[in-house]
Amino acid sequence: MAIPLTYNLRNLVVRKTTTLMTALGIGLTVAVLLAILALVGGLRSSLQASGNPLNVLVMRKGTNAELSSGVTRANFQDVKFKPGIAVSSSGQPLASLEMVSVINLASVDAPDGTNVTLRGITPTGIGLRDNLKLASGRWFDPGKREVVVGESIEKRFPAARVGQRLHFGRGDWDVVGIMSVGRGTTNSEIFGDLNQVSSDFQREDALSSVLVRATDLVAAQALINDIKNDPKLNLDALSEEAYYQAQTGSGIVIESLGIFVSIIMGVGSSFAAMNTMYAAVARRAQEIGTLRVLGFSRGSILLSFVVESVLLAALGGLVGCLLVLPLNGLTTGIGNFITFSEIDFNFRVTPQIMAMGVAFAMILGSVGGLFPAASASRKEILAALRGI
Amino acid sequence: MFRFLPFVIKNSWRNRRRTALTILSISVSLALLGVMMAVYYAFYLSDAPPSQALRLVVRNRISLTVPMPRYYREKIRPIPGVREVGISQWFGGVYKDARDPKNFFARFAVEPEKILAIRSEMQVPEDQKKAFLHERTACMIGRPLAEKQNFHLGDHIFIQGDIFPVNLEFIVRAIYDAPEDNENLYFNVEYLDQALGAGKWGEIGTFYVLADSPESVPRIAKAIDDTFHNSPAQTKTESERAFALSFVAFLGNVKMILISICAAVTFTILLVSANTIAMSVRERVQEVGVLKTLGFTRGTILSLILGEAVAISAVGGLLGVLLASGLCWVVRNGPAFMDDIKHLSIQPPVALMCLVVAAGIGLVAAFIPAWNSSRIPIVEALRSDE
């Protein structure tokens, strides 16, 4: 027969100082783990939100990034009239020639500057980004030195706000609007008129990529094969979704750091939990004897103390969740080695990662509680009753 | 006061299991703190190695990916304090298969005689040096890279271009030894120019500048940037160390992450030791009464308990520093991808800091329980049934 749970709960309440201190220690460990998971989770969700499976990205063969790719205007004409590309209401193929470069701007975290993606684009290209809308201001005018910045850029780069001017290419550019795309990576890009940007960088015929919208998934795959196998083109194509999927590796450095740190902190906290539970066992020797006399088996005692330790740790896990909740939605940025620029995103403290945090805490608790519980269950009835 | 030292030690060893667990817990957490502080120290506090301290990197102000005219070299050369200028171009490219990160290593197009002068800490045998200087398709690689990829002198390395639309084949003619930055491939920029076609490319990604003394580095940086202030391409010049750190900053707000982790770890240790001390003090209220009856003053009792706490956490700290050295070894031999991390070790200032933190935590953690127990009236203490 199992000892009722209320026995454990009451015991935790009676020793509230010790309980709180141990729980807080475990809570901090969980908080470190959750903060890193929320960071990496935010990054991944931003990349996952970025690709549309119907969009096909065309780059030069041998490259895996728009930044190191190169396409010419002649390439664009060839790609544009391939079969399987959707057409706009005015009958134009939905194909967008784009130029990508990187500019260095001072961010709130890096006053010495960090890299940001600059994209020369046309209205067709803007139309190919799902859910992209203007948050404030207006779009750039073709032929003018004007740019629109993503909403994360606006938050993290003081120099890139509406009304400010950025200096790159051959002169100053006015920031005229802010765009927003839900969670996608366009939030961390700067858009300008394709012709103006490419002429400023003296790259009128050395552009970066072509993005096309296929009519359906089957057509998308056919289009990819068609472009890949066209001997005239020397181009490679992949779905936009796959392109962003490949970038999720960016968070791996921070993620492994986080896991390394939380495991070591976890070892430390489970020792602390062990200490607390040993003290609990020592103080309750007589109670344990009484429980045995009442007929509870050694197994029940063992289980009861492990459960108490797990409860204690779960409380710590909840404390950890509370500690990281304020991070939720905070915008941060980390470097993406494929685009060689910063990708900005929000911390995401999701129910899943909170559940992971509590589970991690409960593992710590069960490890920490096992030995003390075993020593409690081994106590001889008489010795225990005498309080030795 | 050392009169009571044996008493303090005896007391702390009374509940062996608790003391051992506390020491273990503190030492594991402190080891982590030590490693984090070592990383912080390596990135932000340690001096640049002597070879690096003389070098500057010039790039286009817009960003590293935007090139600048090659003729800038001729304008940088006469700036006072400049001993040598060399061009360096990131070639990028793909070796074998880009999907396997093991195939990634840095490839730079350089002027062979300049790179050997500017990176004078590189050790290359004379005959290999000669071959690298004279053969256009020759390349020079770092020894650790050669060992990792199993490259030998005379081997051919085929690199498919990505940034540049050309594929290049190099012959390994020299292998260099250097304390840092030793996993690069250097090749002659003339080979790249030739492959791209004559007169096609008059630009370059970066210039490396060698200064005559570490003191003139900031002045040269300013002089170079001032020279090109009104040019079509403005420059940004920084010390090689600052240039390397900009890649660390690229990983994310590393400083902030390190500081937050350190704070969380320190606070956890504080909780653990406070809890332990509180538990052991609670058990000994009667004893405190006895000590008081024997004539021990409040101050002595306070310092006895504080001393015990500091002793326990200092032992934890010492063990922690040892463990941290072990962890640094793991990091060095593990997935170290940056030069600063490849040499990660616990420097004396970091070790000292760890011990100070440990002892400080012991003091702070024990203060409230020690204070309270030293103030319990004798009668109440003696009557305590714990």
Helix-strand layout with pairing:
The complex is a heterodimer of chains A (about 400) and B (about 375).
Chain A: H1 5-14, H2 16-48, E1 55-60, H3 73-80, E2 95-105, E3 114-121, H4 123-128, E4 133-137, E5 146-150, H5 151-156, E6 165-168, E7 171-180, E8 189-193, H6 194-200, E9 209-213, H7 217-229, E10 235-239, H8 240-245, H9 252-283, H10 285-293, H11 298-324, E11 331-336, E12 341-346, H12 351-378, H13 381-386
Parallel strand pairs in A: 3-8, 5-7
Antiparallel strand pairs in A: 1-9, 1-10, 2-3, 2-9, 4-7, 5-8, 6-7, 11-12
Helix pairs in contact in A: 1-11, 2-9, 2-11, 2-12, 9-11, 9-12, 11-12
Chain B: H1 5-12, H2 16-45, H3 50-53, E1 55-60, E2 68-69, H4 72-76, E3 82-90, E4 94-95, E5 106-110, H5 112-118, H6 126-134, E6 138-142, H7 143-149, E7 156-160, E8 168-176, E9 184-188, H8 189-196, E10 203-204, E11 206-211, H9 217-227, E12 235-239, H10 240-250, H11 254-283, H12 285-293, H13 298-333, H14 339-342, H15 348-374, H16 378-383
Parallel strand pairs in B: 5-9, 6-8
Antiparallel strand pairs in B: 1-11, 1-12, 2-10, 3-5, 3-11, 4-7, 6-9, 7-8
Helix pairs in contact in B: 1-13, 2-11, 2-13, 2-15, 11-15, 13-15
Describe the structure.
The complex is a heterodimer of chains A (388) and B (386). With 388 residues, chain A is of the alpha+beta class. Helix content of chain A is 49%, strand content 20%. Chain A has 13 helices and twelve strands. Chain B is elongated. Chain B has 386 residues and is of the alpha+beta class. The longest helix of chain B has 36 residues, at 298-333. In chain B, strands 4-7-8-6-9-5-3-11-1-12 form a ten-stranded mixed beta sheet. In chain B, strands 2-10 form a two-stranded antiparallel ribbon. Chain B has helices spanning 5-12, 16-45, 50-53, 72-76, 112-118, 126-134, 143-149, 189-196, 217-227, 240-250, 254-283, 285-293, 298-333, 339-342, 348-374, 378-383, and strands at 55-60, 68-69, 82-90, 94-95, 106-110, 138-142, 156-160, 168-176, 184-188, 203-204, 206-211, 235-239. Chain B contains 16 helices and twelve strands. Chain B folds into two domains: 2-47 and 252-383, no CATH class; 62-233, no CATH class. The relative contact order of chain B is 0.18. Chains A and B meet through α2, β2, α9 and β11 of A and α2, α10 and α11 of B.
